[in-house]
Amino acid sequence: MPKKRSGGGLSTTQQAAKFLGVAALSGVVLAGIALPAAGALGLATKGTVEGFDEIPANLKTPPLSQRTTILDSKGGMIATVYSRDRTVVPLKNISPYMQKAIVAIEDARFYEHGAVDLKGILRALNRNVQTGGTTEGASTLTQQYVKNVFVEEAGDDPDKVAQATQQTMGRKVQELKYAIQVEEELGKKKILENYLNITFFGQQAYGVEAASQRYFSKSAKDLTLEESALLAGVVQSPSRYDPVNDTAEATKRRNMVLQRMADVGDISRAQADKAKATPIKLRVKKPKNGCITAVSGAGFFCDYVRHVFLTDPVFGKTKEDRAKIWNRGGLTIRTTLDPQSQQSVQGSIKNHVYKSDKVATAVTLVQPGTGKIMGMGQSKPYGFGTNETQYNYSVDKAMGGSNYGFPTGSTFKPFVAAAAIAQGKPATQVYSSPYEMPYPTVQTCDKPYVNLNGERVPNENESERGPYALKEAMEKSVNTYFIQMVEDIGLCPVAKMTDKLGVVQGNGEKLPQSPAIALGSKGLSPLTMASAYAAFANRGTYCTPVAMESVSKADGTALPVPKTTCSQAMSPTTADTINTLLRGVVDSGTGQEAGLQSRDNAGKTGTTDARKNAWFVGYTPNMSGAVWVGSPSQSVEMEHITIGGVYQDKVYGGQVPGPIWRDAMTGALNGVPAPSFNTVDIPDPPKNDEQDRDSDRDRDRDKGHGRDKGRPGAGGKKPGDKSPFPGISISPDLIGGNNGGGHRGQTTGGTQGP
Fold it and tell me: How much is the pTM?
């Protein structure tokens, strides 16, 4: 036991303090704040007692923030995320050495006094009188616990944290009253348990369990005497006594705790001496926090889950409410991510595109009929280093994606065809489809688009001259065919169709109404495209994408989660017609290199101006996937380029994205049933001899290359051509907005970076 102070009398300061009494000292003195003796007799300022009585009686104790666990659909770990790394444990699961060590060094008389230790206050006052400074304080563990509650409630708000830790009379009086309440309601054992779970131990570890795991890679119940003393010593100043960065200082502090434990009789002198002589032995476990720790390349999906939680009103009415729940943590989130699909996505990406390449790829798989995101990955890993990024190229800007998405090229054409068929156009519809034509005047939902400057649109090759029927035009991706189609039906049906399919630009805005939109001129995300194409697979029913199956709190209480919303975007017959058309693309059109061998599949290629973007979007009846390849900054023209160790003279939608899609889908669907599409009969129109010869020449020229002949300007820019579409003259006046009485055209030009 500690020795009693020599001498029998009280000092002048002690006598004054005793005279003032508990009520008068309920301000700064009894709260234990360390102040110079000069102010000791002036602490019971007017209004302190009245203010004490006015403080609300109940301390609102927030649930302690803990780590959140994110799981895949099978229950496997994806990642852990937290605002504070903490795992709450009961006192029985904390080493008795740890319990004794923290009491000995922080509040040796913890079990003897109430909320306030008057003897400790008098001792601190006397010591401060002797030194003329603030060498000793006298806050009890209960008061320290209350302060930590204030800090926990403040969260990561720096202003609130400053308020919670300010050394003012009002704050100390408030702590005192709540400490009294806590002592009455909880009792000593529970207070100690709460304190050990709430306090900060340095190295991002909150609570003794997280600290034990961080420094020693073991549970708090297994802490030895030496380890317990070390952790107890860290609490006073986690940075100063950090054993990872300053072993010598941490050893001095640990030995001080051991000596204190011996002084109060918790351990023997021999035990203390032996422990002091033992070198500190750490087994540090580095913090593993956030989506950067996700397995199987699921960091971007993990980040998408976080964005959903912070933005969806189902988790709280305001963003502040949602952020508070997320930062508090302690959640278990089971997601829709299918581990087989995710591994297949990552394997395909790794085989086809290197993270060090000048371009990147992003792949997203979605389940038709449920909207479940089954896989999501990209070639630039989630992180902060070289060739890493935190931008998720698969999603819209609001969910952590690039600023605008990426122009989709001819993968947009099926939306135009679906709108036309829904308007009653037959699947055998024929248009003259010249090699080149001016953008026509087209009716929008508002007023006509007028081509005021005579801009023209060509097909890729001069041999591509109509007339063409829809099936062949889709397989060859003939630009002028689809421009004539929007001229025929107008842009409003296309806009209404894309609205029903959830198609918006990467910045969240609706698509503009201009003929160039039929050629994929605006930026969309792979998730948007995969979800929209899933409606074709699902016989016309579009389902909004979802990422979570369930969310439960630390106590097991279930929270509501966002549910998919499914609606009929087109008739089953329209969808069946699109399925038949797009099956032809992979069978004999530009997407042959993407085709799957053992199951029904369909899809569409797309390549944009100057080959800055290449796409393949395709599906089976039970899986839809979108693959984008390009430069996130839109600065790389994919000609004479090496991707994934393979030299590419010119990149086409069917040539690089197509095989990525094929391999990702093959692995994802391995062992999964292979249902068939509902198809319709689309007879081939009769051809004249010249068309047959042209078709044969096209097939011979493109055999084995899976070329997307419908790319805007895939043939390269003509000399002196200043248009962002090679071979198309489009003036800046035709980009967005209105010009006179008509809508302006849209291009894919411009730099769109993350």
Answer: 0.76
